[in-house]
Amino acid sequence: MEKKILLTHCKDAPGLISKITNICYKHQLNIIHNNEFVDNTSGHFFMRTELHGYFNDKILLDELDQALPQGVSRQLVGPNQKRIVIMVTKEAHCLGDILMKSYDGSLNVDIAAVVSNYDTLKGLTEKFDIPYHCVSHIGLDREEHEAKMLEIIDMYNADYLVLAKYMRVLTPTFVEKYHHKIINIHHSFLPAFIGAKPYQQAYDRGVKIIGATAHFVTNDLDEGPIIKQDVIPVDHNFNAQDMSQAGRDVEKNVLSKALNKVINDHVFVFRNKTVIL
Amino acid sequence: MEKKILLTHCKDAPGLISKITNICYKHQLNIIHNNEFVDNTSGHFFMRTELHGYFNDKILLDELDQALPQGVSRQLVGPNQKRIVIMVTKEAHCLGDILMKSYDGSLNVDIAAVVSNYDTLKGLTEKFDIPYHCVSHIGLDREEHEAKMLEIIDMYNADYLVLAKYMRVLTPTFVEKYHHKIINIHHSFLPAFIGAKPYQQAYDRGVKIIGATAHFVTNDLDEGPIIKQDVIPVDHNFNAQDMSQAGRDVEKNVLSKALNKVINDHVFVFRNKTVIL
Amino acid sequence: MEKKILLTHCKDAPGLISKITNICYKHQLNIIHNNEFVDNTSGHFFMRTELHGYFNDKILLDELDQALPQGVSRQLVGPNQKRIVIMVTKEAHCLGDILMKSYDGSLNVDIAAVVSNYDTLKGLTEKFDIPYHCVSHIGLDREEHEAKMLEIIDMYNADYLVLAKYMRVLTPTFVEKYHHKIINIHHSFLPAFIGAKPYQQAYDRGVKIIGATAHFVTNDLDEGPIIKQDVIPVDHNFNAQDMSQAGRDVEKNVLSKALNKVINDHVFVFRNKTVIL
Amino acid sequence: MEKKILLTHCKDAPGLISKITNICYKHQLNIIHNNEFVDNTSGHFFMRTELHGYFNDKILLDELDQALPQGVSRQLVGPNQKRIVIMVTKEAHCLGDILMKSYDGSLNVDIAAVVSNYDTLKGLTEKFDIPYHCVSHIGLDREEHEAKMLEIIDMYNADYLVLAKYMRVLTPTFVEKYHHKIINIHHSFLPAFIGAKPYQQAYDRGVKIIGATAHFVTNDLDEGPIIKQDVIPVDHNFNAQDMSQAGRDVEKNVLSKALNKVINDHVFVFRNKTVIL
């Protein structure tokens, strides 16, 4: 007996839940959890079904294809641990939290490697027996640097790339290659404070909350589908540096919560938004 | 075409979602929202299905009864506005919030009457053209007082009684009569600070958060099924009275959110807990 | 014996707390609360001192002027209730919350009048025996409309104008006249979603939090000094209208908390920020 | 030039702020931050003053003793890093967070050693080059075990002991020895769910929030002065184990925030409460 997750996304139509659950029932698969959502604005249907039983994947998927509207996207995902490569620059807190959570079992993920343009976090990474690759950007143009990074990253055949405070903007070539597979943590409650130095921007504006946003990376800077956001209160006592310090906990919490949803197959990306079931 | 909500609760068994949604599909009822939950600890299944179409209630329910395990509880709820009677003592904020939300359409409820042991809130209630009944408890024992209260309350044939800071404990007789139909707001994050003067208890203990709990009333004081809880931070600057003042917003927000869930048929009561779908 | 609040703001210099509290001590004024803040970036000093005793205002302020750096701003504020005029368009929740909080004593404020470009909220306002003035903007250009509004507003000699979902942009003439005396509630966590229809913008962007911002109005739309912000979580289930409905509670809570700080003389405005002591 | 913190606590009396800041001013000490609190219920005065300049500690303290009421508690604390010993059982998340925050500079603390009754966390601790002592309790009575623990702990001359999910109750002898020097994280929003298995208790009660409490340890189990509390929402989908997993982040955040306040000398303990300035 196995546990698998069936992810279904198609145009809405009458009887979808009935048809899908019927097929599962006929296959004697037990539904452990079922979550569905119909986006009435766009007329799209999303369903995440946790199943338990003996699977005949091909027959199951064929029957679904026949029963569901044309153009259905359906996927049967096994319980395999996802493999990630983490990209960082110099800050330790997001990387450290993922390392710790993987270490103590809070995050069911295989960290294949950490890649950076600095060697600052080599020591921390290697404490956890994970390969660390430093590819300095000095003397390289953006394309050359990315090509060298990708040479390493591609090697690991990762399911997702996690930008855990990687402070360089990626080129369209890079982003295309890992379409909807790159998760970034931005240190503001987007769409406020897009771009560089969001804490300085927040300080200058005099906001009373600061936050963090985990999102998939697209070619539009800080405009990709948002997975998770959270905020903390600040006040006049906080200068930009205090905000940056206080923001560390919310950044790492938001990133690891987003990652947890993604690697456990709860997240659909639809247009420029996420549906999290 | 009508909108109705099907609430199903039974022992878990294979194929329940499939069976229920099949029957709906055969009746050409469109599922707008569907939420289900299986409590694996107890082996119970709960489902809330928002349906749209032409209903033949009797046939639909008969078919469900045949398809589902024995002892199923299923209910088809129409879109009728729920009718409530509000019980208060002297504090205005919870009553005021419900009156305002009913007035501006945020809360889809018919406030049949307000009943109190004081006349303090008569003026406020009558601003909104709602009958106010004052039944003083002075000179009466608890049973006599409640009997007089019930004489009035029963008259209104309410779906729910809302204790919006009604500061007297109800007798088992009263509670039995409105079994799982009485919603209370308690001014602490239960189970902390059961009983009288929770803010004074919170101050004495030196807690750094205070809160409020909306729950169904049972015979065990402050022990009924919890519907909604929330908290706010406090610190050493707050004495018991400051806490009481600061707590007003969280009390009223928690109560009106709980009420909103209940009157829109999102809440199952199972044993001493709620399942909110 | 009286209670007054001394508000001091000047360039930072050695010994300020000592000098100010010495003068208070010499006047036999007891300090109930004292809060100070030094903005190290700008080198400015802010202090709010709650005093109790017999006041000789003129001598006290003269001695402070002599002791403190040139250009000091100091103010001795009595315990008088502040007078406000509320401006609204059609939405009831923010107005309703202020009316209720004034009614039950949670907000110590004298609501002199409500002014609107529609008569929608006349009924609600008059329930609380407060004058309501409807000045329709139909057929008038912006300046003409504001002139007619101001004719009424000026009459009430208000300490503050509260824009409780007043949906028109004010001209510089209007804003100048009530410099740092106009408090607005904007239905987003500024600086995200400036301008019209912030909930629609939030929905289109797919954010996972929505919020509200209370700020002083300046000539730059939605750019004035922020007093208070708060947020609530949302998800894919919320369309723009659901967000708007869910946002009501956070809007009204943020506005009434901001107003409470302002009318109790906790708020300094400095450049484009607030210091709240 | 040095930075020191003056902590003053005494019975309230007229002119205290004036007297203390005068003496600092005479010593040409610049006040960077000043926070004071008067507990009107008990008539006690608390002040935390961050000073910068050349210090003559003895003269300064003597002058304060003369100026202030009898029985004053005043302390001049240098900028030295505090030294802690961490006690753990088997769970990694709280220990891991403190190790990471110390490593990346978020928490300015010297972790002298980790002491446990199991060797589970030896590997993690030693990654960060910190001594780990395992003192098994097997075959020992409580007093014998604690005596062996204390032999090691005492050796490190720690300012504070941090119980980062140390799951054994300490004897009065142990607690007395480190009076107000032991910080514990309890995995509930105290006073709810005192004692063992708070997440199971929370699950059984059906609460809609769970939380964590950092407090000083006293002889009354889970009754010591509370430093910090926070909560997260849960619902019917969480069984006791899910709550325990979800609670990890709030536990570690609450503990490290409390620790940060304590080691930076923001926390006064007064009777059974904390005043945090």
UniProtKB/TrEMBL annotation, chains A, B, C, D:
The ACT domain extends over 5-85
Q: Which Pfam families match?
A: ACT, Formyl_trans_N
Which EC number applies? 3.5.1.10
- In this protein, the active site sits at D222
Keyword annotations from UniProtKB, A to Z: Hydrolase, One-carbon metabolism, Purine biosynthesis
Hey, which pathway is this one from? Purine metabolism; IMP biosynthesis via de novo pathway; formate from 10-formyl-5,6,7,8-tetrahydrofolate: step 1/1
- Keyword Hydrolase in the entry? The reply is yes
Instruction: Name the reaction it catalyses.
Output: (6R)-10-formyltetrahydrofolate + H2O = (6S)-5,6,7,8-tetrahydrofolate + formate + H(+)
CDD domains, sorted: ACT_F4HF-DF, FMT_core_Formyl-FH4-Hydrolase_C
The source's domain of life comes to: Bacteria
Q: Which NCBIfam families does the record cross-reference, listed alphabetically?
A: PRK06027.1 (NF004684), PurU (TIGR00655)
Its biological function?
Catalyzes the hydrolysis of 10-formyltetrahydrofolate (formyl-FH4) to formate and tetrahydrofolate (FH4).
Q: Which family does it belong to?
A: Belongs to the PurU family.
What is the protein named? Formyltetrahydrofolate deformylase
Q: Where does this protein come from, organism-wise?
A: Vibrio zhanjiangensis
Could you tell me the gene encoding this protein? purU
